[in-house]
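Supplementary Methods. Inverse-folding protocol.

Structures were first reduced to a discrete structure-token string of length 699. This string, shown here, constituted the complete conditioning input.
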């Protein structure tokens, strides 16, 4: 065994082992065995010389050990053969594993596709009749089946996952030739053209004098919605509501192609510059009239609720302020903080007022610190003016419109307005009020305490709070401001209705805003708690009337309310466009307003809709746009009715608000769409930080 160990050590130490020829047996004993090592390097000649001079290494083993050595060699050879076989087996198994992994990946991909398909089918379960499930968008949504307009015909029917396909009708190939001479007929998309023939369109068509071709007459949803029938040269005029109501609705916007716009330096908006206004919709009653392009005239006594979304770019060192004023009295106001030159500053406001016949409302633009200066729009020949100024007003496709809801005294509504008190506080703060400046019914809405608004009757409450602030300290920027809208029930229970956010900017005048709607019972109170960092020293209020709470109360037999929050469990990030989805929190009339998980709202009766949406978010887009789309009529078109934008938030959370009022027909649909331009949405905070309220009032 000792010789075996020595042999193993020798075999492990040498690089090449060769068995040399044995010398003549006579020189050795019987049991001797001779081994010789020969290492051959690259330099063969030098090595041969060294080998001649080096004594040979000889190892004498007893003859009895030779058998052990040979047996060990055979065992090593067998072991190597087994290792080779095992390596071949491992290689074969590796190939099989790779094939199985590819099969698993393929099946996993199929499973994901099946799960997506199952989710799509699950979403499609919520689709109504005359709807199809659009599975080519993320997430899948229910969309109304297209109704082919006059001049087109359906080539395929609407199915569960496919929309109707419409094809143009070739009127010129019909048996009843529409033109006097068949050779004079030229087919066009949706219509036709009669060469050298004017006013000879067939039944159901009118002659469009702008393009000199026959086009199909518009079809109103109901016969009593026809304000003006179709004639030979004019299309039909439809109205979404009847001319018999105690309310009215008006929409307009500020002109953005004006040659110049000036701002005044007065911190109190007593003599501001008036903004030119364009009327969008024709009123369905005689409550409004446009006057001189910069004012709205009220033709009856009553009360109004004003909503406006606006976005601008300006270079003023602090803020610009826009206000709605009736007879020099402030109705509602908001401020646009200073931003970088190429970033939109967006803001919205709502306000309430009592009006009399003949009174006028104007929009006024002013600034406490921006010098009067001229801003030019669409004038490339005018060089850039380095003076602080208003440089751009976003057009209606990005922000707007100005909307006014009028209610006569027959509607039973109540309006209320009170300015907030000036205060200085650090950390949490509860908003306090002065005695109300406006109150159409002091019993229904009252102020028993400085920080609580009391309601003495059940109803739907629309509210809008504006609170001017000036803060000091970096913690103000880090924590920002959260406005907690709370309802103190008559039982003493305090409920948080929504939470609305505003980024802090130390040593800067900013305006905190909170808007929405809620259901109140007798004895309930409305409270606003503002939360910020305990080290953030803040002055609340200033010498202007911008800080105020506006309220409109509506009886429950006249209006209904739907409250919802941004859907949890959804990844609200990414680029492009997507539809916002909400989870219903409260619905006072489910038969009138239906909310679906796809994000669509269905209105099952006509009326006036007041919508508010508040959101805490962060994004890197050039601008992020929120649009409310309205679907109704024949053909069913997706029409934007409210929109706003918010510029790049610079990697910090900011708050967005969208407010507006519009008319709805029976079976109309509404949805909110988010669009990111050149960038990505980083996050939308769900729950009460993404609150949607919809008030549907009778027309």
């Amino acid at each position: 065994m000792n010789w075996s160990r020595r042999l193993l050590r020798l075999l492990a130490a040498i690089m090449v082992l060769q068995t040399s020829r044995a010398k003549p047996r006579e020189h050795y004993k019987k049991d001797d065995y001779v081994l010789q090592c020969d290492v051959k390097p690259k330099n063969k000649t030098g090595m041969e010389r060294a080998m001649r001079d080096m004594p040979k290494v000889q190892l004498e083993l007893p003859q009895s050990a030779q058998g052990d050595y040979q047996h060990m060699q055979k065992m090593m050879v067998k072991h190597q053969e087994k290792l080779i076989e095992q390596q071949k087996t491992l290689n074969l198994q590796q190939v099989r594993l790779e094939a199985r992994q590819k099969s698993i990946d393929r099946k996993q991909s199929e499973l994901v596709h099946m799960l997506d398909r199952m989710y799509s089918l699950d979403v499609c379960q919520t689709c109504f009749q005359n709807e199809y499930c659009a599975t080519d968008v993320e997430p899948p949504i229910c969309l109304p089946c297209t109704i082919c307009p006059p001049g087109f015909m359906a080539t395929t029917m609407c199915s569960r996952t496919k929309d109707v396909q419409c094809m143009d009708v070739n009127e010129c190939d019909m048996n009843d030739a529409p033109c006097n001479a068949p050779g004079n007929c030229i087919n066009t998309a949706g219509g036709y053209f009669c060469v050298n023939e004017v006013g000879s369109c067939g039944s159901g068509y009118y002659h469009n004098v702008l393009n000199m071709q026959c086009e199909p007459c518009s079809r109103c949803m109901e016969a009593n919605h026809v304000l003006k029938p179709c004639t030979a040269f004019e299309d039909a005029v439809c109205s979404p509501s009847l001319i018999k109501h105690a309310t009215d609705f008006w929409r307009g916007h500020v002109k953005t192609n004006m040659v110049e716009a000036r701002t005044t330096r007065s911190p109190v908006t007593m003599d501001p510059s008036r903004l030119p206004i364009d009327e969008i919709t024709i009123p369905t009653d005689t409550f409004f009239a446009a006057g001189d392009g910069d004012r709205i005239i009220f033709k009856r006594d009553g009360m109004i609720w004003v909503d406006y979304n606006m976005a601008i770019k300006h270079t003023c060192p602090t803020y610009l302020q826009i206000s709605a004023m009736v007879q020099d009295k402030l109705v509602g106001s908001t401020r646009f903080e200073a931003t970088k030159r190429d970033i939109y500053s967006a803001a919205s406001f709502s306000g309430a007022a009592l009006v009399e016949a003949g009174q006028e409302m104007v929009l006024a633009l002013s600034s406490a610190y921006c010098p009067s200066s001229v801003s030019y729009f669409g004038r490339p020949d005018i060089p850039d003016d380095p003076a602080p100024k208003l440089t751009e007003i976003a057009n209606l496709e990005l922000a707007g419109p100005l909307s006014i809801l009028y209610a006569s005294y027959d509607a039973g509504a109540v309006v209320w307005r009170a300015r907030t008190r000036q205060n200085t506080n650090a950390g949490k703060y509860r908003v306090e009020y002065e005695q109300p400046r406006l109150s159409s019914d002091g019993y229904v809405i009252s102020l028993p305490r400085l920080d609580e608004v009391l309601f003495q009757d059940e109803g739907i409450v629309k509210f809008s709070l504006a609170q001017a602030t000036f803060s000091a300290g970096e913690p103000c920027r880090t924590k920002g401001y959260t406005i907690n809208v709370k309802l103190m029930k008559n039982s003493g229970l305090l409920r948080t209705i929504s939470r609305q956010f505003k980024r802090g900017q130390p040593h800067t005048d900013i305006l905190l805003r909170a808007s929405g709607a809620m259901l109140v019972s007798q004895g309930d109170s409305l409270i606003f708690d503002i939360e910020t960092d305990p080290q953030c020293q803040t002055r609340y209020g200033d010498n202007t009337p911008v800080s105020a709470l506006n309220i409109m109360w509506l009886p429950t037999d006249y209006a209904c309310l739907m409250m919802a929050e941004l859907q949890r469990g959804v990844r609200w990030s990414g680029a492009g466009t997507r539809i916002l989805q909400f989870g219903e929190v409260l619905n006072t009339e489910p038969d009138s307003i239906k909310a679906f998980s796809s994000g669509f709202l269905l209105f099952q009766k006509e009326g006036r809709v007041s919508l508010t949406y508040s959101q805490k978010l962060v994004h890197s887009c050039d601008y992020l746009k929120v649009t409310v789309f309205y679907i109704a009529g024949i053909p069913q078109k997706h029409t934007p009715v409210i929109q706003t934008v918010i510029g790049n938030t610079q990697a910090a959370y900011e708050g967005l608000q969208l407010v507006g009022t519009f008319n709805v027909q029976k079976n109309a649909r509404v949805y909110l769409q988010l669009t990111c331009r050149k960038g990505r949405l980083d996050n939308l905070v769900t729950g009460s930080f993404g609150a949607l309220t919809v008030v549907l009032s009778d027309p």
